[in-house]
Design brief:
CATH superfamily: Divalent-metal-dependent TIM barrel enzymes
CATH architecture: Alpha-Beta Barrel
Radius of gyration: 17 Å
Number of domains: 1
Shape: globular
Structural class: alpha/beta
Strand order of the largest sheet: 1-2-3-4-5-6-7-8
Bound molecules: zinc ion
Order of helices and strands: EHEHEHEHEHEHHEHEHH
CATH class: Alpha Beta
Helix content: 40-55%
């Protein structure tokens, strides 16, 4: 089942994403929080469901580490708002980009991440919203996430006592290089904490650390192989296409969407 992250078609408004995805036969949608600005999340959720789309998740919460307790509290408060939004929207999952502070030891940031998740866990559980830790590629360890491997994400889940609402969002862009990947995917699924699967590709050369992701098939990630490992665990979730790309955002977005669907079909035939 194909799901699109709205940021993949960033030039489109929330309403355009819902309408165009549904028309194109895309099954699922993952909203980004900017989609909810100036809107009633419950209404956005209703629009998406009426259009026939599954709401897969809300991106993103996290960014827990900070150098002062006040800033860490602000992050916790913001994550509580995010949980309320996800609940109103009808999104079963929040993807966490966990955060990091340049110059602060990564171990300390990971400790603050675990504390931050623990602080919002009661609200998440009460709202029926799961939290998916997304390990980010180590190139983002400076200021976006101190969680860079599936193993580190699993360690945090374990340290929290393996609550049912905390798991992992696996994104091929961030973890394709990991020599433990197959094992970690199997382990994560066996712990019932493989919550989401994101796909795109890694271009060579990559010209922008953030906004030059590739479409499946145009890079070096063995997307199908990783996807087969995920399927082999019995994972029944959507395959979520999440592509930040200045190049593709500059295209006509209807053509871009058709290109994504074509790449997706090629990948899975
Ligand atoms: Zn992702």
């Amino acid at each position: 089942m194909l799901c699109l992250h709205t940021i993949t078609t960033k030039p489109w408004s929330t309403e355009q994403c819902i309408e165009r995805y549904a028309k194109a036969g895309v099954e699922g949608i993952t909203f980004w929080r900017y989609n909810l600005e100036g809107r009633d999340p419950a209404k956005v959720g209703q629009q998406a469901r009426e259009a026939g789309l599954d709401i897969v998740s809300l991106c993103r919460g996290g960014f827990f580490p900070a150098s002062s307790p006040e800033a860490r509290q602000q992050a916790i408060d913001d994550n509580r708002r995010c949980i309320e939004q996800a609940h109103a929207l009808g999104a079963p999952l929040i993807v966490l980009v966990c955060g990091a502070v340049p110059g602060q030891p990564l171990e300390e940031s990971r400790k603050q991440i675990a504390e931050g998740i623990a602080a919002v866990l009661p609200e998440a559980e009460a709202a029926g919203v799961k939290l998916g830790i997304e390990p980010l590629h180590p190139m983002y360890a400076d200021d976006r996430s101190a969680v860079n491997t599936m193993r580190q994400a699993n360690d945090i889940c374990d340290a929290l006592g393996s609550p049912e609402s905390v798991g992992i969002a696996a994104d091929v862009y961030h973890i394709w290089w990991d020599p433990e990947l197959q094992h970690q995917i199997e382990f994560t699924a066996a712990q019932k904490r493989l919550f989401a699967f994101h796909i795109c590709d890694w271009k060579t050369p990559t010209t922008d650390f953030l906004n030059d992701r590739g479409l499946m098939g145009e890079g070096c990630i063995p997307v199908r192989q990783i996807s087969d490992w995920v399927d082999a665990t019995g994972f029944k979730g959507h395959r979520e296409v999440e592509i930040f790309s200045n190049r593709y955002w500059a295209m006509d977005q209807d053509e871009w969407l058709a290109k994504i669907q074509q790449a997706y079909q090629q990948l899975y035939t």
